[in-house]
Amino acid sequence: MPLLDSIILIIQIALLTIVVVASGRLIKRGNDIFLAILFIFSIVSWLLSDLYWLAFDVLRSGEHMPLAANELGECAMFLLLSTAISKYKNKEERISVFAACFASVFTLANTALWIIWSGEWLQDIVSGICLFVLLLTFLQVCEEKKMLNVNVKSVMSLAAFLVILFQVLTTYLQNTFTRILEDISYLIVFAAFCLFIVLAIVYMRRKEKAKPFLFSIALMIYAENILICIAVPLIVSLFFLTKSAKRFVSAFVIGMVICLISAYISGFIDYTSKMQEGEAAVFLSPIVEESMKIVPVLFYLLIFAPKNSYLLLFSIGIGAGFATFENCCYILSSGADKLPFILIRGLAVGVMHIVCTVMLALAMILLRKYKALSVAGVAGALSLSMIFHALYNLLVSESGVSSYIGYALPLLSAVIMLIPYKKHLKDL
Q1: What is the pTM for the complete model shown?
Q2: Residue of 229, 204, 230 lying closest to 215 (CA atoms)
Q3: What is the DSSP string of 341-361?
Q4: In 3-state terms, what secondary structure has residue 161?
Q5: Is residue 72 over pLDDT 90?
Q6: 341 burial type by CB count under 10 A (0-12 exposed, 13-18 middle, 19+ buried)
Q7: Is 96 left (phi over 0), alpha (psi -120 to 50) or beta?
Q8: Chain centroid to CA 201: how far?
Q9: What does the angle CA 271 – CA 276 – CA 280 come to, to the nearest 5 degrees?
Q10: What is the reported pLDDT for 216?
Q11: Which residues lie closer than 8 Å to 131 by C-beta, 6 or more apart?
């Protein structure tokens, strides 16, 4: 398995573990235990499938998997989710033509491609049947809830056609465009999934009772579309940039992705813990966001052992990407007609994220220089960025003098850090 795919798989395992643990609280509340249990079991199945795949790749790297046992976990996930969704299906309602046709064609095409790719008929057909059951049930419920109009169906059909077409080309064209076509397929699926996120949010804002079958969708936000719009041009620009510029732009994109993942985690924990309004920003966000930001910094430091200047540049890119993406989402959701709000988002919140990542970078540089790079040292640096972030959020959470102090804190801290850096730390 390529290194990038392994990293993505590990991140996915970590996120699924968080989802499973946090979902356990739904059972304790006693609200719709049936759905909560099935949802947790389906995610556990997915998690076990990923763990099996990772363990096989580590223990028996390069060997052929005659019976892909990880597909058992995927089948279990499909069937458990379809069982949970079917609870909200009107059994007297006839299956819609669109749901039947879409699920049939998409499943048959994918099953055929799986068989061509792996050569395993039985397991791929079984997986295809399970996928068909999930798609049919999900689309039927969406039809009954009036979530699929003509435009949505057209977009779904076009996306499915393009995904199948690109996968066919990927299977038979073994050249430099193979990886590009495969990545485009994933982007299309990702965009289609974003469409359902928006539909779920719209459905829930109709002042109707939010149906639990939208649970996993409603926890997401529409920000994926913003990420794609900003990240794609930046990724394309990497082919024309110098090494230092590539390093910064790459870190900038990673920072945006980290911001999106942090929103997922914070949103899910906030939802399951039923925090009051404003509590998540003060108590939860600093821990989640700073923990996520330190991950790529540590990875870059430990794997690539970069020069200090490169590490600092990479960390600044992480903070700048995180701040930019967060600001774009807030401005689009709250409006851009108020200049004071724009200035606060840029000069206060934006600078705060950069200051936090610079703190982390300088701490890593000092720890490495004095051979004190340890768990305790890294945890101390992370705690420092967390408390700074938490202090800012706490100060601006209340109106009055404290909010003005909070807004000035990031800029003041940036100046204070810049002066000793210019005099003493730039040669580290």
Answers
A1: 0.51
A2: 204
A3: HHHIIIIIIIHHHHHHHHHHH
A4: helix
A5: no
A6: middle
A7: beta
A8: 18
A9: 65
A10: 39
A11: 78, 107, 110, 111
